[in-house]
Amino acid sequence: MKVAVLGGGITGLTAAYCLSKKNHQVTIFEKSAILGGLAVGFKQPNWKWNLEMAYHHLFANDYDIIKFAKEIGFNKIFFKSPQTASLFNDLTIHPMDTPIDFLKLPYLDLFNKFRAGSVLAFLKLSPFLSLYEKQTSEEFIKKTMGKTIWIRLWQELFRKKFGDYAGIILASFIWARINKRTKNLGYIEGGFQSFIDYLAKELTGLRVNVLTSYEVEQINKQKNKYKITGHFERSEKSSEAFDIVVSTLPTPIMAKLTTNIFSEKYLEKFSKLKYLHALTLILESKEPLLKKTYWLNISTLQIPIMGIVQHTNFIDKKNYGGNHIAYLGWYLKREDKLMQMNDKELLDFVMPHLEKIFNFQFSIFKNYETNFKKQISNFYTFRGPFAQPIFDKDFVKNKPGFITPAKNFYIANLDMTYPYDRGTNYAVKLGKQVAEMI
Ligand SMILES: Cc1cc2nc3c(=O)[nH]c(=O)nc-3n(C[C@H](O)[C@H](O)[C@H](O)COP(=O)(O)OP(=O)(O)OC[C@H]3O[C@@H](n4cnc5c(N)ncnc54)[C@H](O)[C@@H]3O)c2cc1C
């Protein structure tokens, strides 16, 4: 059968791989010039490895991607234990990797620590329970860990990640977050892009037709076939008919393209889903912004950044021309002022805050000149549309599933990783699952 796979992220690439192994004739349509979607990487001429436009690592229990990589002969995943920490109001950085780290945390008395610690242990061990969908994370945490813990540990983290939506996020999010997390984190030699490129090469061998820089604009149904219409960059429109469609596009984009296929009632469900868009600012610098920490949650209102990921405290800086790499990350509404800023404005906006963080760590060395701006040699930004679905009650009722009312039109996208937060592991899993149905 002729299959159109819409989207050349990891879900689309995996689906195409599995479908062509089943002897289907597959075409991938990808809007960007480079395959990889949200996991896409880039490389400077003096770097050995690619770097993701948005910080990426694997968890030790990301079994689907680990297994699939082995199946296709890709043996470049490795694991390490970099430090995770939180930055609090006094600008000190506290490691948050182990129960001992948690016990050492100031700001909380022993009673609250034990109470929170036992709930965290319960979440780690308990299977998914329907009660997590009947209350918000805030309600659950206040009820079980107490109001003090909510205010001191969680409130700001939720506000930073979900903005105005912080109060409606279901407790299933917190369960999945705790349940999934592992101390060992994985990375890929050459960056995630080396996995994507490897997969793309396999697809070429399997005679999959990979169309990059091709934006799908509309899908129509003609008898039993789907007509995919779109265009290459700066080219005329073209159309081709397929027996089967697999859409891995973000749901709001898919909904816009399929008004001639699906009923208003079916598409209306998707209008109830809410999303935030990802924004990252990548800093390449001579000295690191963070001394030891890889992953820093910002738990203070004073610093308007969701998190800082000092990638080179995880992966050796020799792979990036000897420079350090730090990511600053946010999830935002499209109209947010940070989304509207150009790259330079964004850098100027964060600079005073970065100077504070940098100074606080390095000023203990007497006569050490602390000026992080002078250390920066390059900076880059990335915007990922619809990258963070909002897991609220509407989401659970209206999220898409593989099967749609239109025969032979399937969906496999990052909304379907719920209750887990999206990830490349689930992209592989979804790609495999959808291919099994066809
Ligand atoms: C900030 C951030 C951090 C992350 N961190 C991690 C991490 O640490 N570990 C991890 O495993 N995962 C992480 N992820 C998640 C991971 O990147 C995604 O779950 C995964 O890449 C999703 O793959 P996908 O193929 O389902 O979707 P996508 O990658 O979104 O692919 C969809 C593709 O569709 C294309 N497209 C859109 N519209 C059209 C159109 N009209 N025509 C043709 N093509 C179109 C897009 O260009 C895109 O390539 C992170 C994501 C973000 C945003």
Blueprint (SSEs and pairs):
Blueprint: E1 2-6, H1 10-21, E2 25-29, E3 41-42, E4 51-52, E5 58-59, H2 63-71, E6 77-80, E7 83-87, E8 93-95, H3 99-104, H4 110-125, H5 137-144, H6 147-162, H7 171-180, E9 185-188, H8 192-205, E10 209-211, E11 214-222, E12 225-232, E13 237-242, E14 244-247, H9 251-257, H10 264-271, E15 275-285, E16 293-298, E17 307-310, E18 324-332, H11 337-340, H12 343-362, H13 372-375, E19 376-389, H14 393-398, E20 409-411, H15 424-437
The chain binds flavin-adenine dinucleotide.
Flavin-adenine dinucleotide binds near residues 6, 10, 11, 413 and 425.
Write a structural description:
Helices cover 35% and strands 25% of the residues. The protein is an alpha/beta fold. It has helices spanning 10-21, 63-71, 99-104, 110-125, 137-144, 147-162, 171-180, 192-205, 251-257, 264-271, 337-340, 343-362, 372-375, 393-398, 424-437; strands at 2-6, 25-29, 41-42, 51-52, 58-59, 77-80, 83-87, 93-95, 185-188, 209-211, 214-222, 225-232, 237-242, 244-247, 275-285, 293-298, 307-310, 324-332, 376-389, 409-411. Among the domains are: 2-50 and 191-273 and 398-437, FAD/NAD(P)-binding domain (3-Layer(bba) Sandwich); 98-180, no CATH class. The N and C termini lie close together (10 Å). Strands 8-7-16-17-18-15-19 form a seven-stranded mixed β-sheet, with helices on both faces. It has a five-stranded parallel β-sheet with strand order 10-2-1-14-20, with helices on one face. Strands 5-9-6 form a three-stranded antiparallel β-sheet. Bound molecules: flavin-adenine dinucleotide.
